[in-house]
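Figure 3 (text version): C-alpha cells given as input.
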C-alpha cells in the first residue's frame, strides 16, 4: 500500500511574491518555461517584471509587451478567495510533487477543495467521452480499488470515463483537472459532479485564469497536467484520435507508466487502446495489474524537480550585463524553423549559456520563439 500521506516539501511564497508571480505568468508571451528562465536569470518575479519591456524590445517585438498590473493580480486573487480557491506555487508544500518533475510545470496552480489530496500519490484514469456501459463500469471499478489502496484518482471532468472515475473515487480522493478557469467547468452538465467532488474528498485545479472559457487548444494543456500529476495513466476506451491518447503519450514522455484496457477490434472506441498495447502499454484487465505495476514506485521519494524558489530578499538584477549586438546576432542566426537543442546553440556559437538563454528569452517575449517538447526551440520565420 502506498504512503497516502503528503510528502510536503518547499517554502511558502509571501503575499508580495505571490502577486508578482501571478503578474508574471499572466503577462504576454510568458509561459511556464519562460517564467522559470526569467526567475533563474533575474532572481525574482519582481526583478523579471521590471526587465520585460527591455527584453521584448531587444528581441524585436513589434509592439510594447502587455504586463499584468498589480490591480489585475489582486483582483484575480480576490476572486479566488471569494470562491474558496487559492493559488499554490511550484515551490510550495501543497503543490503536487510529481507535477514538479515535468518540463513546463505551471508555476502557479489555482486550487479549490481538499489540499491534502494534491500531495498524495495519484493515478490518472482517462478515456472515451462516448463510453460504453461496460467501459464506464470498468473505469469505476479501477478507480474504486485504487482509492481503497490509498491512491488519488486524477481525471479531466469530461463525460464518460472521466465522470465514472471521479464518481467512484469522490470519497477516497480525486483530482479534477480543468481546461478553463476554476469557475468555468466543462462540460456544463458536469457542474453538479464538480460540486460532488468539492463536497467529498476532492480537489479541482487549473493553470488558467478565472473566467477563462476552455478552447480546443486548452485541452491538451489540461491533459499534460493529468499525466504530470500521476505515477501512471490508465486508458479505458479511446478512439484512434482522442485526447486520451495525448494524455498517454505525455505520460510516456514524462516517464510515467501507461496502462491500456484491451477491447474489441470491432469497436472504434477501442482502436486507440489496442494500439497502445501494440506500442508497449501495460495490459490491464483488472485493478491488480495497475496496483502490482505501481507498487515498486509507491515507496520512492519524489525528487524536487524543477522547483522555482525565491529568496526572501531578492536582488534587482542590476548586475546583469546583456550580450552585445554581435553576440546576439550570432545566436539569432543559429536558429531556424527546425527545432534544435539549446546546448547545440551554445556549442555552435561558443557563447556562454547565460548569454544564449537570455537572447532566447528576448525572442520568446517578443513572440519570435517557438518552444517544443524536450526543451527544443525554433525561431518564428517572418512571412
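Below: residues designed for each position.
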Amino acid at each position: 500500500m502506498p504512503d497516502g500521506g503528503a510528502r510536503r516539501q518547499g517554502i511558502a511564497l509571501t503575499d508580495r511574491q505571490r502577486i508578482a508571480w501571478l503578474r508574471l505568468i499572466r503577462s504576454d508571451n510568458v509561459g511556464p518555461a519562460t517564467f522559470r528562465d526569467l526567475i533563474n536569470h533575474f532572481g525574482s518575479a519582481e526583478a523579471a517584471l521590471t526587465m520585460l519591456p527591455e527584453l521584448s524590445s531587444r528581441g524585436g517585438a513589434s509592439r510594447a509587451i502587455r504586463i499584468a498590473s498589480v490591480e489585475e493580480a489582486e483582483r484575480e486573487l480576490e476572486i479566488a478567495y471569494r470562491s474558496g480557491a487559492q493559488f499554490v506555487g511550484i515551490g510550495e508544500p501543497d503543490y503536487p510533487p510529481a507535477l514538479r518533475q515535468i518540463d513546463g510545470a505551471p508555476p502557479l496552480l489555482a486550487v479549490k477543495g481538499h489540499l491534502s489530496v494534491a500531495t498524495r500519490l495519484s493515478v490518472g484514469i482517462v478515456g472515451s467521452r462516448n463510453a460504453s456501459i461496460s467501459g464506464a463500469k470498468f473505469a469505476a471499478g479501477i478507480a474504486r480499488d485504487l482509492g481503497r489502496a490509498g491512491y488519488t484518482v486524477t481525471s479531466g471532468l469530461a463525460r464518460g470515463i472521466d465522470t465514472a472515475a471521479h464518481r467512484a473515487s469522490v470519497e477516497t480522493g480525486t483530482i479534477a483537472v480543468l481546461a478553463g478557469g476554476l469557475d468555468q467547468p466543462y462540460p456544463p452538465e458536469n457542474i453538479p459532479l464538480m460540486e460532488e467532488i468539492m463536497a467529498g474528498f476532492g480537489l479541482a485545479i487549473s493553470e488558467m485564469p478565472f473566467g477563462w472559457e476552455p478552447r480546443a487548444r486548452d485541452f491538451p494543456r489540461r491533459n499534460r497536467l493529468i499525466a504530470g500529476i500521476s505515477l501512471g495513466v490508465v486508458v479505458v476506451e479511446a478512439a484512434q484520435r482522442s485526447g486520451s491518447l495525448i494524455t498517454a503519450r505525455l505520460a510516456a514522455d514524462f516517464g510515467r507508466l501507461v496502462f491500456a484496457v484491451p477491447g474489441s477490434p470491432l469497436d472504434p472506441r477501442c482502436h486507440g487502446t489496442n494500439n497502445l498495447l501494440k506500442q508497449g502499454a501495460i495490459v490491464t484487465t483488472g485493478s491488480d495489474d495497475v496496483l502490482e505495476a505501481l507498487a515498486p514506485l509507491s515507496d520512492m521519494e519524489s525528487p524536487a524537480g524543477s522547483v522555482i524558489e525565491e529568496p526572501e530578499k531578492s536582488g534587482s538584477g542590476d548586475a546583469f550585463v546583456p550580450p552585445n549586438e554581435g553576440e546576439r546576432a550570432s545566436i539569432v542566426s543559429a536558429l531556424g524553423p527546425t527545432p534544435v537543442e539549446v546546448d547545440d546553440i551554445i556549442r555552435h556559437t561558443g557563447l556562454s549559456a547565460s548569454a544564449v538563454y537570455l537572447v532566447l528569452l528576448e525572442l520568446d517575449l517578443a513572440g519570435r520563439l517557438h518552444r517544443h517538447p524536450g526543451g527544443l526551440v525554433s525561431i518564428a520565420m517572418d512571412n
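The longest strand covers residues 108-113.
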